[in-house]
Amino acid sequence: MLYGRASLSNKVKNPLIQPILNEKALFRDMVQYSTDASPSQQCASADSIHHYFTANQPSLFVPCQRYDRYSFCQEYYLFQFNASSSTCQRFVRQPCRPHRLLSSIDIRGGLYRGVTLTFMLSLNRMNRFPYILQRWHGPISVAFFVTEREVPALAEKIAAVPRQNVVYSVYVRRNTTIQNTPWHKLPSGLKRYFPKGVFPINLLRDLTIESISTSHYLVIDVDIFLSERIYDRINSYGHWLQDERLILLLPLFGYRSNRTTSLNSKSLQSTPAPFLMNPAAFRCYEKDDCKEAWEHIPRDKKTLKKGVSRGDFAAVTRYHYVINPAIWMGFSVSVPMRGVVTENMEPYAVVRRSPRNPIFHPFFFDYGGDKMSFFVYLRSMKRYTSFVMPIDFGFNIPHKQTAVSTQFRKQKKTHPMSVFYHYMKYTLYDSLHIRTH
């Protein structure tokens, strides 16, 4: 058992399926981490970060190791920059702080030991970073995806960040040639090639999770801005979070659109178009002119409620219906509320990092099923209780849609990530006798 965890792969007896379900073993093979941080050096400037990478590329190189169905191959380099110690080093997986001591690599002690914000991004979304820093005052573990050509620019950006409690895991995609073109292995065994590469979305999430030194992490996407005092309030729920089976869910809001829900709607269904979208949000969606829209995103529940009353903001319920939004808006007590995670949901949440808890399945890339698959694992284990943060929230910022998300929506039934997600889900549910809706 990897990390001493009773993996789902041990509960599914089919030997053809077991390897695909053990996401921690897959992560280990795809990252090839060790407990040795060398080569390491002090990195006090952007130049020293860039020099570390160029001088140590052979040691930082990660070749492909997995060739299963549904896997993908993309050669890359991997290193970390720890801003608190100004150190560049190889990626090192941090020990867990589990509820119970399950293996020799774990740290003894099951109390709540703080929470780290985790997310990943590419260089073209760095403009979100200052807003996230303004609203989150605790430790951060972030993964960057860049090309070899972008490393100098990334070094400049992260060296200029005015925060020390940040760990950066940097995934550098190796320059693509005919010999090393990234590919994805289809269920048939055939390979689909990606000359422009793939975005290893869940591998990046796992890099952030396995880099934390706290007991818990809050997983978000870089397009989510948080309420301003969320870090302090999560810490105030420490006695709740001592139970590793408790998941603390984040209600999600956004500028009103046909993807959000009007709280004035009796049926709480999608708001019917046409409607008048906030002009600043419209400019952001259509022209990528986002500063005004981002500056006016609410920082607290009181401001959020005013925006909802005006019709500017609304609850995001598609894939994020963790609680009835109208009930949440009227709730004034600072005690977590009972929530729910149903099938095909992908909420943002505070989760304990534990040998007994899953990480994100690293075979997912680009877009589709990546977060949902994590909650399929949680549902399959039948051991988790969900609560909702009563005061704090996330806000889905307006932004232009990516090409990969657009492609996924056009090919939703046949897209490789959708196929893998449904294969995973129904394999688990059938094997563990879980009823589906």
Automatic annotation (TrEMBL):
<dbReference type="InterPro" id="IPR051292">
    <property type="entry name" value="Xyl/GlcA_transferase"/>
</dbReference>
<protein>
    <submittedName>
        <fullName>Glycosyltransferase-like protein LARGE2-like protein</fullName>
    </submittedName>
</protein>
<keyword id="KW-0735">Signal-anchor</keyword>
<dbReference type="GO" id="GO:0042285">
    <property type="term" value="F:xylosyltransferase activity"/>
</dbReference>
<keyword id="KW-0812">Transmembrane</keyword>
<keyword id="KW-1133">Transmembrane helix</keyword>
<keyword id="KW-0808">Transferase</keyword>
<keyword id="KW-0325">Glycoprotein</keyword>
<dbReference type="GO" id="GO:0016020">
    <property type="term" value="C:membrane"/>
</dbReference>
<dbReference type="GO" id="GO:0015020">
    <property type="term" value="F:glucuronosyltransferase activity"/>
</dbReference>
<dbReference type="Pfam" id="PF13896">
    <property type="entry name" value="Glyco_transf_49"/>
</dbReference>
<keyword id="KW-0472">Membrane</keyword>
<dbReference type="GO" id="GO:0035269">
    <property type="term" value="P:protein O-linked glycosylation via mannose"/>
</dbReference>
